[in-house]
Amino acid sequence: MIYETLRSAIQERRPDIDLAEVDRAYEFAKNAHAGQKRYSGEEYIVHPVEAARILLDLDPDLAAIQACLMHDVSEDTPITVAQIEKEFGEDVASLVSAMEKMAVIKVKKEDQQTENWKKMFLAMAKDIRVVFIKLSDRLHNMRTLQFVPKEKQERIARETLFVHAAIASRLGIYQVKSELEDLCFKYLCPDQYEELRLAVAKFSKKSDLSMEFATSQIEQMLVREGVVVQEVSGRKKHLWSIYQKMSKKQAMDISEIYDLFAVRVILPDSYKDGKEQVSHLYSTLGIIHNNFIPLQDRFKDYIAVAKPNGYRSLHTTVLGLGAGLYEAPTEIQIRTASMHAEAELGVASHWAYKEKVKSGAQSLKLQEAFHEIRSLLQREPDIEGAVREWIEKFQQMAFADRKKVQTMLLEKGIDQNHLDNIRKARSTGPLVLAGNYEKHRVWLKGLAEDIKKGSEIDIFPDKIFVLSPKGDVIELSRGATPIDFAYLIHSDVGNHCNGAKVNGKGVPLDYELKNGEIVDIVTRSNAKPGKYWLSIAKTSNARAKIKNWFHKQEFESNVRLGRDMLNRELELMHKPKLDEKFIVMKNYAGKERTLDDRIDILEAIGLGTVSASHVAKTIFAVEEAHEEEKEVYFVPELTGKVLITGEDNLPLIFSACCKPKPPHGIIGYVTRGHTISIHRQNCRELHGLDGDRFISAVWA
Ligand code: MN
To answer: Is 628 an active-site residue?
Structure first.
């Protein structure tokens, strides 16, 4: 039974993991999925178990294994994340819940969305374990893709190639990346895949023999030269990378691609004074170049300059390894054992949480000790090698060397208690200082920078990624609310936003959106923005659009007011009311006016910058002169005149607070002493005054 295989693999490779706990998660998932079948006709539980087997290669902790076994439970069965939390705790539940959230995203086609998808994938998976579980899940789904209905296969393969394989590559998990790519290739270009597969197969007997021959040639030669070798092995290129290489070179035949395989020379790790040594790699390279003819321009030093995903190795291509069997040049890769582990598993080769396997109070103390040591190593990276050796390979160290490291740590301010706790923890099993966490962080950071500028711990500290109900990924500033989302979709959606749902549940408009949430805006045709939205909206886009809306509203209401005032005035003059296009103003004050000009005049009336009666009289060229005296007040110290509408015969004063002068916009205020004081329209003194006492005033 497949679960037995997983169980014994865990037992063998991870004796630190409590199998009873794994069993419990398995039973839970098995019961939950009872009766469900995969497309293949197998029991559903086979899928999470297979995924967990893949995950095991990535060296997971117990919580990750449990979460992987239960990763489809909350999505596909009535069991909820809350129930999982009750049974298995918060850590496991949060992993399952993250997996569930990521399941809703579907990449539709090869478009810009895939880039966003990748970003969201990483932003959501703040916990790297989620990425690993997701990759394991996807790899098993790809392995069984032939059972999935044909019409779904291509979409899934495309999504996998552009998102999952790309992420595995970026994280340096080549094992997963290569297999995913070949599987995608098979479903996306079935003809080319089959053609190449046959060609490689035809060639493979010869190339297998050559690979074996070349490998043993190198191994024997190195042993003869006295090099201590850990392993020499051959590695075949996977189909997708051959295919890409052929396309790039526009090669017609696979015989034009000479590095169908590479020979890998793995040397032991070496440390001196606590520093990682690489000189033995270069001297081995020298020995190889002495024995075989290197091709010029084919030497690559990924140790001096690592690849962006952290890959380190020396690459060279030599002639003469085939001895008649295989005349093509052969690539040789030289690296240390830990570089090799990193190359195969990438980030997974140093899980950040390895030390979590210790449990209880002892674990807390140990974590504290490691925390202290890690921050010391951050300040003094030079001593990392020695400290790491002291923690991880204590048994192999000479007594004097142990003593030396301990004394150094004490001198550098590490507490004796911390050293004691490390000693105690060591007695219960091997220790790993997850200090490479730093390196892993740097990779993630590089990855973020690759996509966009990233930052320290959080990959996208200022961004969140949410989904529209259709599954489009929408990028927003952190802190964004449904209002921001609505305006990003469309101004109309924003302006008619009447409510919002997140993951199907109603939320207030000031709700802070989180990564991966599905946001649905409820609109209503007569809904409109409120002023308070300006304080809720976090993006400048939404704020600008809200302000715009209000400006427009004010403009429209001023125009409406101006039109009504002018109509009243016209009525008094027994003239017809304004028509829709305000034709009577077509030639206003001796100038031709466009419709917009006419609307502007109405706005000015509404704003009070010009009086309706003045406009009416101008339209009908009525002599205003003698009537003017009644309405216009001359103010000795000013050159301008002020026109007041609505109030007659009240004395006029110019307020001292804001000293209005033309062309300031002005307003009148009828004081309790029955004078009209004229202020600037924006005068601060006006705040809080009785609104009924304001009257409009304009410079005449
Ligand atoms: Mn699954």
So the answer is: no
